[in-house]
Amino acid sequence: MGKKLKYSLGGLVVLFLAIQLIPVNRDNPTTDASLEIKAPVEVMDIIKTSCYDCHSNKTEWPFYSYIAPLSWLVAGDVEHGREELNFSEWYKMSAEKISRKKEKLVEEVMEGKMPLPIYLYTHSNAELDEMQKQVLRGWVNQSKINKKNEGEVELD
Asked: Partner of 56 for a Cys bridge, out of 52, 121, 142, 146, CB 3.0 to 4.6 A?
């Protein structure tokens, strides 16, 4: 092995070790249990298995989320996911916003956008089959029916 190659590899090792020192936020904020989403058991099972790691304050941080540069990707995905939709803070939203979020959730699941394909590489159990997708769709449709029966206007 040539000197240049040895120095290059040594430099890469030092760089890899150095980037481990860059702090990454992997906090799971505490939240009031009364704000947590409430849904039928079959819906909650799907949401907890396929959505909670990125869309709740109950993220289970895998070992690779502690190794840069993967830690940056995972922490960024969780941060963005929580900003878009946080099931741990579900009832902080208005009823209209909850309705829109449910619609968006089903739309993205049906289109295969969620869970993120990159997430499924390491969490194959999070992939939704057609029956699970229909359970989510039914949950959203039932919410619409209930609102209409109660005389509320459904917002798009």
From this structure: 52
